[in-house]
Design a protein that fits this description.
The complex is a heterodimer of chains A (275) and B (624).
Chain A (H helix, E strand, L loop, with lengths): L7 E2 L4 H6 L6 E7 L2 E2 L3 E2 L5 H12 L2 E7 L6 H4 L9 E5 L6 E2 L4 E10 L18 E5 L5 E2 L1 H8 L6 E5 L12 H8 L4 E5 H8 L6 E5 L9 E8 L4 H13 L1 H10 L13 H4 L2
Parallel strand pairs in A: 2-5, 9-11, 9-12
Antiparallel strand pairs in A: 1-5, 3-4, 6-14, 7-14, 8-12, 8-13, 8-14
Chain B lengths: L7 H11 L59 E2 L12 E8 L11 E3 L2 E5 L6 E5 L7 E5 L7 H4 L10 E3 L2 E5 L4 E6 L5 E6 L14 E3 L2 E5 L10 E6 L5 E6 L4 H4 L17 H4 L17 E4 L4 E5 L20 E6 L5 E6 L15 E7 L2 E9 L4 E6 L5 E6 L6 E4 L6 E3 L11 E4 L13 E2 L5 E7 L1 E13 L2 E12 L7 E7 L4 E8 L7 E4 L3 E5 L4 E6 L5 E6 L9 E4 L5 E7 L7 H4 L13 H4 L3 H4 L5 E7 L1
Parallel strand pairs in B: 1-32
Antiparallel strand pairs in B: 2-38, 3-4, 4-5, 5-6, 7-8, 8-9, 9-10, 11-12, 12-13, 13-14, 15-16, 16-17, 17-18, 19-20, 20-21, 21-22, 23-24, 25-28, 26-27, 27-30, 28-29, 30-31, 32-33, 33-34, 34-35, 36-37, 37-38
Classes of the chains: A alpha+beta (275), B mainly beta (624).
Chain lengths: 275, 624
């Protein structure tokens, strides 16, 4: 199937220029959200943009983007419609596609002004009275995981929601929850780590990020990988090799974006994905 | 499940008191096992006696024309035409066809005014006008609103449009990207276009507007996107917003003031649209108005239903979550709320309250009452007093496990706590499933038979383990929702004739798939509806006997209408083309292996692609 809208990317480094000058460079078609920082945007400013470029470079592939917002039904409309072959930034446990080995793991975090005493536990009695912000998925029956923890503690009377899809007519639709901590509109956000890490750098008020400690039956930690169609094991294997070989560069990119990472053993077995 | 007839003893007692003629008491016959066959009743031709409900005088039946999807502002969907009747319906033939140009779910109603037929397509929402005076009903003009393509991305349930409405020389319709538009019917030129909804925030419009008096009433879609629901009245001539009332928030924004006189105590108090929510959750409180609007010009009230409480899981939002999952009555001119009733407080199963409120006049316990009848997602047919919102009765019309009944004293739905969804917990057999016992597909009322004709669903759902997903780069966990046929022989749909006064089914036809089309009933005592396989059916309104059916090119989820053509003949039309929420597996090319796609509907509809493909064609039928 032809790509709907594509954009050609030249590799980032001189080394890459040499390695991609081959006449028959393969194509790596990536679906990404055109307005979804810190992950991706059409100006290639997101860290998934940068990581995709590194991986494509390692494979000697020409990177082609198909811009598709990561909204309800996006796996079906992109990967499974065949308009692209790779979805970066996918939780390893998603069942609708095959995922590579993860290239980072992160957690939902507490985000608060640095000058406030750190909240380090969901059992902190202050959670009953602090103004708390959570991210709302907007898909029936779906919660961001910290909400499960709040629900079981019946902490509901001081919670405000921030839609993950947000106002996509403007840049930075994921930023409002961080701005709300900075402005004091809320005292504490329970937010996906990479979003907190990136946007905390952009506000003038110093903010503190603390991983939410593990909670039984609540998925606060996610390992993030690249996704391919369920039967595309060959591409998954190639991507795995590339991710493995360029691990240091990928980590450096994640450092630049202040993605707060945790170590989490991968669920993947080596046999599944070796080339 | 056996169908019970009017209890003979009760009739005898009632008739003794009211001196009505004796009715025959028929023995109960169980429904046949095969879907598609109808129960052969042998009732008398018309329900007799003062118990039969009447259509209000302002609910003008369709006749030569059919000017709005519900036929009139009372939403009866009844036509006075009787050229087509039980004796000759089998002779119906295709008279002309028209391709809608886009193969997505076709929910529109073809309206006919002044020998011109008007339909609206799914996105891109083109309004077509067909010239019925010429052979083959050729295109007279079309209007392309140039709707933004991105609005398709935020629509939850296919890019449908529920049709245009005509009044005072203008055709009114709405677009997915949030505009209300008025077109001069004679010229096809735009009279005005008013932007009402912001699709960059997930807000769209899919409903058919209701013109009443000098206004047109419109509401938004997009509750699950955190959109705040509202209803607005626009001036028919200028398109300017005359009033806009939100469904959640402070009284000033919900337009609740000293005219508000609700019947039940739980609706009395200040700013309940804030205080029945934790914190500020009402700001993403849903309560959109994407279904049907009716109106009583004598009482000067509009009635419309409100959807469920937005993206918050029910456990996160303890409280009644006013004013969601209920029905408002508002002053047509000022928008001030007169009363409200909540079908499903603190909704936990996606039971949007937007289904039609059909206006009827009844005798109730010896008194004349101005009422409305409403088959809800939660499985009950309600009769309400439309002057004050009192519940007169609530009777189950489908399998229900999610609740135990409606307490008529308090007006409250009594939930079954064993079937309450809880994050991470498996709960099986919740009935009705999220699409409800009936979704948007509108029913019709015949004052001749006194019956309500309800196309509806037979679906239950299991909520099982967590499922990991992500949207906009943010991982989340959701519950696996799998829908399946409700109790019975595996039929997932039913077309039922309902005795409003006694709150029970008179006859019904089981369908393999949900009966997701609208319906219409005529003075010829025939009822029309379509199936998701694509059969357009005519059924005897009294007995339920199938008189005729025609296989259109795709599944049917549209609304049938009828009119008298310039040649003097009666025509009936339907737009065929499957999609919408139930047809997502076909219209959206969903993967059958993923039962949780389309919000869990796919599991219940796995076989739909075996029976229909996408389509988009208007069919008009007539005799010879």
């Amino acid at each position: 199937m032809p790509s709907r809208s594509t954009e050609r990317i030249l590799a980032l480094s001189a080394l890459a220029l040499i390695s991609t000058s081959a006449v028959h460079a393969r194509e790596l078609r990536v679906c990404a959200d055109p307005n979804n920082l810190p992950f991706s945007n059409q100006k290639m400013e997101g860290f998934e943009n940068k990581i995709a470029a590194v991986v494509a470079n390692e494979l000697g592939a020409r990177l082609e983007y198909v811009w598709a917002p990561l909204w309800r039904g996006f796996v079906r409309k992109t990967l499974n419609a065949g308009i692209c072959d790779v979805l970066p930034g996918v939780p390893e446990q998603m069942e609708r596609l095959t995922t590579t080995r993860p290239y980072y793991s992160a957690s939902y975090v507490f985000l608060q002004p640095a000058e406030n005493e750190a909240v380090t536990s969901l059992d902190d009695p202050r959670l009953a009275t602090l103004k708390i912000g959570v991210q709302l998925v907007g898909d029936d029956g779906a919660n961001t995981p910290p909400m499960d923890a709040l629900e079981r503690r019946h902490t509901t009377s001081n919670v405000r929601g921030f839609m993950v899809i947000g106002d996509w007519g403007k840049p930075h639709p994921l930023r409002p929850i961080v701005d709300a901590v900075s402005s004091g509109e809320i005292d504490l956000a329970l937010v996906w780590g990479p979003i907190a890490g990136y946007y905390a750098l952009t506000v003038s008020r110093p903010l503190r990020i603390t991983p939410i400690p593990p909670e039984p039956d609540v998925h606060l930690l996610f390992s993030i990988a690249m996704g391919v169609r369920k039967d595309d094991n060959a591409l998954a294997a190639d991507l795995n090799s590339a991710i493995e070989r360029r691990r240091n560069e990928i980590d450096a990119i994640l450092d630049t974006y202040s993605v707060p990472r945790t170590t989490l053993p991968s669920a993947k077995h080596d046999e599944e994905v070796s080339p | 499940m056996p169908i019970s007839r009017l209890n003979a003893a009760a009739i005898a007692v009632a008739c003794d008191m009211l001196l009505c003629p004796a009715l025959n008491a028929e023995p109960v016959t169980p429904l046949p096992a095969d879907p598609g066959e109808s129960y052969q009743a042998t009732a008398s031709d018309e329900a007799k006696g003062p118990l039969r409900p009447a259509a209000p005088a302002f609910a003008t039946p369709g006749n030569a024309e059919w000017s709005m999807p519900g036929a009139n502002v009372g939403l009866t969907r009844f036509s006075d035409l009787s050229d087509i009747d039980t004796a000759n319906a089998a002779d119906l033939k295709v008279a002309f066809t028209f391709s809608m140009g886009v193969n997505r779910g076709q929910e529109t109603a073809p309206i006919v005014v002044d020998d011109t037929l008007y339909v609206v397509s799914p996105f891109p929402n083109i309004l077509y006008a067909l010239d019925l005076t010429k052979p083959g009903a050729p295109l007279k003009w079309s209007y392309d609103p140039k709707a933004h393509a991105a609005s398709q991305g935020v629509a939850c349930c296919d890019v449908v449009n529920r049709g245009p409405a005509f009044a005072n020389g203008m055709v009114f319709f709405n677009t997915l990207d949030g505009n209300a538009i008025a077109i001069d019917a004679a010229t096809g030129k735009e009279a005005w276009k008013t932007k009402l909804a912001d699709f960059t925030r997930g807000e769209t419009i899919t409903m058919a507007p209701l013109p009443v008096k000098d206004k047109v009433i419109i509401g938004n879609s997009g509750g699950e996107m955190g959109v705040r629901g509202w209803a607005a009245a626009l001036d028919q001539t200028t398109g300017k917003i005359v009033w806009k009332a939100y469904s959640t928030g402070p009284d000033s924004e919900v337009m609740i003031g000293d005219q508000f006189k609700p019947f039940y105590p739980q609706y009395k108090g200040e700013n309940l649209g804030v205080s029945t929510w934790p914190a500020e959750m009402w700001k993403q409180g849903g309560g959109t108005v994407w279904g049907w609007v009716s109106a009583d010009p004598d009482l000067n009230l509009v009635y419309y239903g409100v959807s469920n409480p937005g993206p918050w899981n029910s456990s996160m939002r303890p409280g009644d979550n006013l004013w969601t999952a209920g029905v408002f009555a508002r002053d047509i001119d000022s928008g001030e709320a007169r009363w409200f009733y909540q079908w499903s407080p603190n909704d936990r199963s996606d039971y949007d309250g937007v289904n039609e409120n059909i206006l009827i006049d009844i005798e109730w316990k010896g008194a004349h009452r101005k009422a409305l009848v409403h088959p809800d997602r939660n499985g009950y047919v309600y009769i309400l007093d439309r002057t004050n919102g009192e519940v007169l009765s609530a009777s189950p019309f489908a399998a229900i496990t999610s609740s135990l009944g409606v307490d008529l004293k308090s007006g409250r739905l009594i939930y079954n706590e064993e079937k309450k969804p809880q994050t991470g917990k498996t709960v099986r057999g919740i009935c009705p499933a999220a699409p409800g016992a009936k979704d948007w597909q509108p029913s019709a009322f015949s004052h001749k038979t006194g019956l309500l004709y309800i196309p509806h669903n037979n679906l239950c759902m299991d909520l099982t383990e967590v499922e990991v997903g992500y949207l906009a780069g943010t991982p989340y966990v959701g519950t696996d929702v799998k829908m399946m046929a409700g109790p019975g022989d595996g039929s997932r749909g039913e077309f039922a004739a309902w005795d409003i006064m006694n709150g029970e089914k008179v006859w019904s036809i089981k369908e393999r798939f949900p009966a997701w089309s609208g319906t219409l009933v005529t003075a010829g005592n025939v009822v029309f509806y379509g199936t998701m396989e694509g059969w357009f059916k005519v059924v005897d309104a009294v007995t339920g006997k199938l008189l005729w059916q025609f296989k259109t090119s795709s599944g049917i989820i549209g609304q049938p209408t009828t009119w008298r053509g310039p040649d003097g003949k009666q025509y009936v039309a339907i737009v065929s083309g499957v999609g919408g929420w139930s047809g997502a597996i076909v219209a959206g090319n969903l993967d059958e292996r993923d039962g949780t796609a389309a919000l869990g509907f796919v599991n219940a509809m796995r076989d739909l692609p075996d029976h229909t493909t996408k389509g988009g064609t208007l069919y008009a039928f007539s005799l010879d």
